[in-house]
Write a structure and sequence with these properties.
Helix content is 49%, strand content 10%. The protein is of the alpha+beta class and 476 residues long.
Length: 476
């Protein structure tokens, strides 16, 4: 073996090495690690000591040794650093060094992963080949290459090590907007990245939809104006106007000098909608269709303006948060087994007879089926019940419990809306708190519900149906 100053690497059969003394209780040989050992072998030599009877005992590298045995490798590189000792001092040294070796490790940073995948791509490997050879997710490889193509995202990943690959890829998606990038980095630091990113996506989608609609209106000869303030005393929607006793329409108003339209958000697939108006109905001889003044003018106090702005802001934030929350919920419901606290939430929901749960039962759990990926073969009231029962029948007992939990969570989710942050009820509060307890990071607007007063609920924690249906009215 040579002297202690002339250490050398020996190739030894891993099955002959002793792995009986280690601070780890479980080697945790995951599939990716085993696959790497099968393909590349043991890359970092195992450190060992020699026992008094001539055997070799592993000091550092137990996982590599066991993985090599599992992968049926014939040999592994081993550095024997001396004799095994059994004195108290020897054992203290072993424990301290094994603890240090297993504790003080750092994986590759996002920036380093980007560099590795980018260099492999430069050698001609496709994203699929890189994923297979590195045992990385193809989505991670794709994300890394997207980051590499964005100078701003690459710089952000170099500077901010807390950014994950997915987050850096999202930064790349917004590299045309430095303010958005700053907001994303700040959100990543405070744990709100998904919510801020979704809000930015929603705003971008609405801006693009508004640009397309503006082009359509302009091509049709309709001037596009800014959305008027509530206190505007002139601009009036055609739906509120008549001319010579006849309701005004886009067609009958086409030749009016006051012809115009503004664009506002729409909470539909179209994202935005146009409102056709007359910019000065009195000057152009129009009258109020309902018999009143041409335009009901009103002034708002500064507090009223602030309240309306807060409603619009929180309504918009709630809708963006809903997308993030439902994506998280879809992944959570896909678990094979329910968390330990599932039975308590299920029992509470059933015992409380929550309005949301009763409604979902009557409708065969529409959102629950969607989140579970169950498609109804028919359309109509109660459709999907047969497919849902089939999914339960085919599930293991553990999975069936998870499906039950998922249906209850989906029922509670389906009852939420922009009214929720203004009028939280007990069932929704329990629901959101449960999500947080299981790893969900809430948006600030959801925190208004989570932190609301428990004593403000009615007897059953049921939302007001009228409020639920009309709560969107103030979003415009």
């Amino acid at each position: 073996m040579g002297t202690s100053n002339e250490l050398r690497v020996e190739d030894l059969d891993p099955a002959t090495l002793l792995v009986d003394i280690n601070v780890r209780h479980d080697a945790r040989l995951d599939a990716d690690f085993l696959a790497s050992i099968r393909e590349h072998g043991v890359l970092i030599p195992i450190v060992a000591v020699r026992t008094s009877d001539g055997q070799v005992r592993v000091r550092h590298g137990h996982r590599r040794t066991l993985a090599a045995v599992e992968a049926q490798r014939d040999s592994v590189p081993v550095v024997v650093i001396g004799e095994d000792g059994d004195s108290d001092a020897d054992q203290v040294t072993r424990l301290l060094t094994q603890y240090a070796e297993n504790t003080h490790r750092a994986g590759l940073t996002t920036s380093e992963q980007v560099d590795v995948f980018t260099q492999l791509a430069a050698f001609g490997l496709t994203p699929g080949q890189i994923a297979r050879r590195t045992r990385a997710r193809k989505a991670d490889v794709t994300a890394a290459l997207a980051v590499a193509d964005s100078d701003l995202a690459k710089a952000a990943s170099d500077r901010y090590e807390f950014l994950t690959l997915d987050q850096a890829a999202t930064v790349a998606d917004f590299d045309y907007d430095t303010d958005a990038v700053k907001a994303l980095v700040a959100a990543a630091k405070r744990g709100q990245f998904d919510h801020v990113a979704q809000r930015l996506r929603d705003e971008r989608d609405r801006d693009r939809a508004a640009a397309r609609l503006t082009e359509v209106l302009t091509d049709a000869g309709v001037p596009v104006i800014e959305q008027p303030d509530y206190t505007d005393k002139k601009v009036t929607a055609l739906g509120d106007l008549s001319h010579d006793g006849q309701p005004l329409t886009e067609e009958t108003h086409a030749d009016c000098p006051g012809r115009a339209a503004y664009i506002r958000p729409a909470w539909t697939d179209a994202l935005v909608q146009s409102v056709h108006v007359c910019t000065d109905p009195r000057a152009h001889g129009h009258t109020d269709r309902h018999g009143g003044a041409t335009k009901a003018a009103g002034s708002l106090t500064e507090q009223e303006k602030a309240d309306r702005a807060r409603v619009r802001e929180n309504n918009t934030a709630w809708r963006s948060a809903e997308t993030v929350r439902r994506d998280w919920l879809r992944a959570f419901i896909g678990r094979k087994t329910a968390p330990k606290d599932a039975a308590s939430l299920v029992a509470t929901a059933v015992a409380s007879g929550d309005h949301a749960l009763r409604r979902a039962l009557e409708r065969s759990h529409p959102l629950g089926r969607d989140l579970l990926g169950i498609t109804a073969s028919e359309v109509g009231w109660g459709s999907g019940a047969r497919e849902l029962r089939a999914a339960v029948d085919q599930a293991s007992p553990a999975r069936a419990q998870m499906i039950t939990l998922g249906l209850i969570l989906a029922a509670l989710e389906d009852a939420t809306g922009v009214h929720t942050w203004r009028n939280p009820d007990g069932a929704t509060r329990r629901y959101l708190r449960y999500l947080v307890a299981n790893g969900y990071t809430p948006a600030d607007v959801e925190g208004l519900v989570i932190d609301s007063d428990d004593e403000a609920d009615d007897a059953h924690g049921e939302p007001n149906d009228d409020e639920a249906e009309t709560g969107d009215a103030s979003a415009a």
